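Lab meeting prep.
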Amino acid sequence: SLLRRLLAERELTATEAREAESRGELQGLEALSDAAGLKPGFVALTLLPEEKEPKPPYAVAASLSESALELALTQTELASLAEDLNGQPSVQEILSTATAAKDQPDVEAEDDEAEAHTYPFHSLRCLPNGGMLFDATSFGDGTRSTVGMGATGRMECAYCHFPHSKMSKPDGRLRQRLNDASDQELLATFLPFIFKKAAMEGLMPRVNHLLELLKAEKYETQSGVVALGKFRPMRMSFMHLVESSMRQLPPHIRAESNRIKSELPPPAVTHGGSGPSLML
């Protein structure tokens, strides 16, 4: 299928992408279409598995040049998609991968769980009078809010009765690499994730202008990206990704971010596979 081919090759020619769209296997290219045809840029795509596969559509970020459509996914995300399609890898594959990683001194060896700490994040706290306070505590049951350290990750808190989800947090070495990176390198690293997050959270077209402003700041076409290792940016909120895309957001981008937040409805708890979370 188109999805399996993209996972293997990570790109299609622009002609093949248009043909796949006409067959209904790929959705989202219309965002880059104009009277002259397709124009280069970032886009959030929906990939549809074959009809015989009982799989949901996949939302992925991609970049389109004049000649090719390329998936903007990390190795971790590719592995996750491949696992969804093909099932869990065998024990032999897991062991061989672990052995290969130990033989490479440049590969970060931190355990994935060691990287995911309980992270202070803004959330709703319900007040006795029925109002809601937007603060940095975790979720409460009406009058009983707890701080993030009140329960371990993915375990229900006996005090506030909600699970406390862990959020991904860069380790020391990654934070140093991010601090050393230029704005162009940070934009090249985080822009694909920002577009993907916007599509997955249903923020289009509300944030379209913000995305265009961020794209306009990316003027170097050949800038490198920061090696993220095992860190998973998609666990970050949309606004956190935007804040991470530059050392300091320019005033006009900051103003647009604030405008979007001011027009959004009050924050609401959404229940997903990892427990309650906030979109922004």
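Slide two material, second protein:
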Amino acid sequence: MIMGCELYIFDEELRRDAWALLEQTRRTPVDLLDITPSFFSQMVDCGLLQGEFPLPSFVMIGGEAATPTLWNLMQQHPEVEIHNYYGPSEYTVDTLGAPVAAADQPVGGARGGQHRGVAAG
């Protein structure tokens, strides 16, 4: 927003209906989607990556694991920069991240100024 962009916060109904959200992006194109893999998959099933709708330039998926089928499909669309994010809790989803194009389902590396590690209990 500091760069003059607009932030759209979709209502609960729109956030649960992949087709309705796609129709909304047709009326008001978005540059970035921050979405779960399962909902992204629903949007893909409705035609998101088939050229019928304006494509976002950047997609952040996170909050759950992407299926291998979805992962492979995302890698076939380099025109959209898709990143996978992971975090240990609902409120720290974007702790680790990696581009989907980089490898086979990486959890990702620590994001700016962060370190990652494993603590044995």
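Talking points for slide two:
Helices lie at 12-15, 18-27, 37-45, 68-75.
The first helix runs from residue 12 to 15.
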